[in-house]
């Protein structure tokens, strides 16, 4: 039967604003937190309350669609199926939220046949909204919650391919430490971060007079603490790549739709994986560009080597 993606998008936008109000209403001096896997893996009462609001709203309005949310997911039991499914993170960037670092969002995705079909990502700290609908483009809106017609509300910006991607050495790359602080992914990440940012050997040997050392494999790394906002930054061309291992579908579903509609691509964060799935947990996002996407992906994979994140 027919699924009205525009209607779902409109609903998700209004739910996102509601969630944003709840997030901004939390008193930063008084946020109660619990840890999950370790002290870097945190959930707050606000995460739980926001998810409850979102799920009750969506399951009432769309009772036949499935719902998967970060705070109600049961490891080993909850799976992403081919059914139309809302895939939701009430607060992506919980660590930032606790610290008042203004880069956290509500991430509302909708997938059909496991393909991200609608994405709404809203950062209430900056009143910044990113949206995407499969086949209908993606957009960025500043001062998003102001009423239509307000003189302080700029036009929404359609996202699309930026200039041709250059070499990896000119790329700004988003990465995340994630919430795991040991194990295989952590070891690979830290090794790759160092490799990407250290001065290249060749440049050190042949440096020009007056220059100490040379360039590194990437322009620089950024680690801003929200997978969904990293994907949106990539969709908007603010970073060229985003590399991550250890995320979940609710971290990426919404941003994935927004990225792809902006001409970006999602491939595996492990070498050789031109296809990656919503629940593969290992991703490399590339911004939309008038050329150079495959080349930079190959260059990045070569930099990682043969080790595989899980
Ligand atoms: C986390 C953030 C972080 C990413 C982690 C996620 P949360 O989400 O997106 O940037 O590295 O993998 O779990 O816990 O703040 O919703």
Automatic annotation (TrEMBL):
<dbReference type="InterPro" id="IPR020583">
    <property type="entry name" value="Inositol_monoP_metal-BS"/>
</dbReference>
<dbReference type="InterPro" id="IPR020550">
    <property type="entry name" value="Inositol_monophosphatase_CS"/>
</dbReference>
<protein>
    <recommendedName>
        <fullName>Inositol-1-monophosphatase</fullName>
        <ecNumber>3.1.3.25</ecNumber>
    </recommendedName>
</protein>
<comment type="pathway">
    <text>Polyol metabolism; myo-inositol biosynthesis; myo-inositol from D-glucose 6-phosphate: step 2/2.</text>
</comment>
<keyword id="KW-0460">Magnesium</keyword>
<keyword id="KW-0479">Metal-binding</keyword>
<dbReference type="InterPro" id="IPR033942">
    <property type="entry name" value="IMPase"/>
</dbReference>
<dbReference type="GO" id="GO:0007165">
    <property type="term" value="P:signal transduction"/>
</dbReference>
<dbReference type="GO" id="GO:0046854">
    <property type="term" value="P:phosphatidylinositol phosphate biosynthetic process"/>
</dbReference>
<keyword id="KW-0378">Hydrolase</keyword>
<feature type="binding site">
    <location>
        <position position="92"/>
    </location>
    <ligand>
        <name>Mg(2+) 1</name>
    </ligand>
</feature>
<feature type="binding site">
    <location>
        <position position="251"/>
    </location>
    <ligand>
        <name>Mg(2+) 1</name>
    </ligand>
</feature>
<feature type="binding site">
    <location>
        <position position="89"/>
    </location>
    <ligand>
        <name>Mg(2+) 1</name>
    </ligand>
</feature>
<dbReference type="GO" id="GO:0006020">
    <property type="term" value="P:inositol metabolic process"/>
</dbReference>
<feature type="binding site">
    <location>
        <position position="91"/>
    </location>
    <ligand>
        <name>Mg(2+) 2</name>
    </ligand>
</feature>
<dbReference type="Pfam" id="PF00459">
    <property type="entry name" value="Inositol_P"/>
</dbReference>
<feature type="binding site">
    <location>
        <position position="70"/>
    </location>
    <ligand>
        <name>Mg(2+) 1</name>
    </ligand>
</feature>
<dbReference type="GO" id="GO:0008934">
    <property type="term" value="F:inositol monophosphate 1-phosphatase activity"/>
</dbReference>
<dbReference type="InterPro" id="IPR000760">
    <property type="entry name" value="Inositol_monophosphatase-like"/>
</dbReference>
<comment type="similarity">
    <text>Belongs to the inositol monophosphatase superfamily.</text>
</comment>
<dbReference type="GO" id="GO:0046872">
    <property type="term" value="F:metal ion binding"/>
</dbReference>
């Amino acid at each position: 039967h027919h699924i009205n993606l525009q209607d779902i998008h409109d609903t998700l936008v209004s739910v996102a604003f509601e969630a944003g109000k709840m997030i901004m209403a939390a008193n930063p001096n008084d946020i109660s937190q619990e840890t999950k896997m370790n002290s870097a893996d945190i959930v707050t009462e606000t995460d739980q309350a926001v998810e409850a609001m979102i799920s009750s709203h969506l399951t009432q309005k769309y009772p036949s669609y499935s719902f998967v949310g970060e705070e109600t997911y049961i490891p080993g039991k909850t799976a992403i199926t081919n059914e139309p499914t809302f895939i939701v993170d009430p607060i992506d960037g919980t660590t930032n939220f606790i610290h008042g670092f203004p880069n956290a969002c509500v991430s509302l995705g909708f997938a059909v046949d496991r393909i991200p079909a609608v994405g709404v990502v809203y950062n209430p700290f900056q009143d910044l909204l990113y949206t995407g609908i499969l086949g209908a483009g993606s957009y960025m809106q500043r001062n998003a919650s102001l009423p239509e017609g307000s003189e302080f509300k700029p036009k929404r910006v359609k996202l699309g391919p930026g200039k041709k991607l250059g070499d990896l050495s000119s790329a700004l790359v988003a990465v995340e430490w994630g919430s795991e602080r040991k194990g295989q992914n952590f070891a690979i990440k830290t090794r790759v971060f160092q490799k990407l940012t250290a001065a290249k050997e060749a440049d050190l040997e042949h440096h020009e007079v007056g220059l100490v050392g040379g360039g590194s494999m990437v322009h620089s790394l950024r680690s801003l603490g929200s997978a969904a906002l990293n994907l949106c930054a990539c969709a908007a061309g603010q970073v060229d790549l985003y590399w991550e291992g250890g995320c979940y579908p609710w971290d990426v579903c919404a941003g994935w739709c927004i990225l792809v509609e902006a001409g970006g691509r999602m491939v595996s964060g492990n070498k050789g994986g031109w296809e990656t799935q919503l629940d593969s947990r290992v991703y490399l996002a590339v911004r939309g560009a008038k050329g150079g996407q495959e080349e930079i992906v190959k260059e990045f994979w070569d930099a990682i080597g043969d080790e595989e994140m899980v």
